[in-house]
Amino acid sequence: MNWLEFAVWLIALVVVCYNFYYERKFLKEEGDDERADIIKGLSSRQSFAYVSMLISLLILADLLFQFSFQVYKLLVAVILIGSNVASFVTLSRIRKNY
Fold first, then answer.
1. Rg (CA), the chain
2. In the chain, what's the furthest Cα-to-Cα distance?
3. Distance in angstroms (rounded) separating the CA atoms of residues 34 and 46
4. CA distance 64 to 60
5. More confident residue, 8 or 30
6. What are residue 20's phi and psi, to 5 degrees?
7. Who's near 87: CB < 8 A, 6+ residues apart?
8. Which helix (H) or strand (E) holds 71?
9. Rounded to an integer, what distance in angstroms lies between the CA atom of residue 65 and that of residue 97?
10. 95 in Cβ contact with 26 (< 8 Å)
11. Residue 31, SS3 per DSSP
């Protein structure tokens, strides 16, 4: 289980770093104009909705299945990965459509 936990958290770290890189790249390309602010706002709201949904599902699943601490940590890492992927996917999708 240790190697699985290490791998999941390593993937989470890579995804967070890529999300940070993508945000910086977006700011360099778009600048701080009104269009960039609108895109960031729409993307942030949509990403927050995804994170809230994933956390709610985790809590509900924990109430039903009574996860162990190790499984709970892995699921939190999966939520971290999912939320960061959702963040740069929604940012790029909204940027393309706006």
1. 16
2. 48
3. 19
4. 6
5. 8
6. -60, -45
7. 19, 43, 47
8. helix 69-97
9. 40
10. yes
11. coil
